[in-house]
């Protein structure tokens, strides 16, 4: 029985090793997906930042709008009782 343990792994240890191997592979894939998404987010942020900067530059080149005249408030008439 001692010889069997030295030469042949138990089914439980084989299953455990298989689960660990699969978990490690899944972890590597998950990390690659996370990095891929992070790159996509940074690229989109850069694109949006460039669009916002172009819009702000365009607005800065335009003359400022004339201020609208203030509207006069109507006074409520007092009702006699």
Q: What percentage of the residues does DSSP assign to strands (E)?
A: under 5%
Low-confidence residue ranges: none
Helix content percent band: over 70%
Q: How many angstroms does the end-to-end distance come to?
A: 111 Å
Shape: elongated
The main pleated sheet reads as:
none
Mean pLDDT: 87
Count of helix runs: 2
Sheet/helix structural class:
mainly alpha
Number of strands: 0
Rg over alpha carbons: 35 Å
Order of helices and strands: HH
Short structural summary:
With 81 residues, the chain is mainly alpha-helical. 70% of the residues lie in helices and 0% in strands.
Description:
By secondary structure, the chain is an all-alpha fold. It is built from 2 helices and no strands.
Task: List the keywords.
single chain; 81 residues; 70% helix; 0% strand
Per-chain topology:
Layout: H1 2-7, H2 11-61
